[in-house]
Design goal:
With 163 residues, the chain is mainly beta. It has a single domain, classed as Metal Binding Protein, Guanine Nucleotide Exchange Factor, Chain A. It has two helices and nine strands. It has a seven-stranded mixed β-sheet with strand order 5-6-7-8-4-3-9. A two-stranded antiparallel ribbon has the order 1-2. A hairpin with a 5-residue loop joins β5 and β6. Belongs to the Gfa family.
Amino acid sequence: MNASCQCGSIRFKTPLPKPLALYICHCIACQRQTSSAFGVSAIFPRFSLPANLIQPPPSSPTSSSVSSSGIYSRATTNGQTLYCYFCKRCGTRLVHDSPNKNVVSVKGGCLEGLDWKSAIHIWTKSAMVPIPEGVESHKEDCKDPEEYGVCQEELDQPPGGSL
């Protein structure tokens, strides 16, 4: 899938034509991060954003050797570090990554052609908007591997092994 920030400074392709899973998260942290009612995370196998994919917008005289991306890091509730990559020019969040996981979260709004019908709504107990009828939804995150589709715990396994 093609992805880009709002201003077009950062463009990249995902490693698969569709995500392994798609979550619409209604937790307080996602509400604050997006300044909206929810966050959208498309889960893909871990991949790198090569420097040559970080390009200045066509109208900008800025050299492509200058990085347009920034990183914000924070501790997660389980003690891991979450790295949040964003465009320094327009502020768009693009990718969330944690070194101990074999997957990354590409933020849904930066992806072209995302199929929203497969989205799983999580942390609905703090939802600010109504959850559509008939969609898969959960009051919190995945606790039971049989609770829903591809359990986040399964996706979070480190490369080459289990937690």
